Amino acid sequence: MWRYPRILAHRGGGTLAPENTYAGLRRGLEFGFRAVEFDVMLARDGVPVVLHDPCLGRTVNGTGHVFDYDARELARMDAGSWFGAAYRDEGVPLFTEFAALCRSYGIWMNIEIKPAPGFERETGTTVARLAQAMFADALATGDLARAPLLSSFSLTALQAARLAAPGLPRACLMRQAPPDWEAQARAVGAAALHLDHRFLEPALAAAVRAAGFGLFCYTVNTPARARELLSWGVDAFCTDRIDLIGPADWPVSS
Ligand code: G3P
Ligand code: MG
Question: How many domains does the chain have?
Answer without folding.
Answer: 1
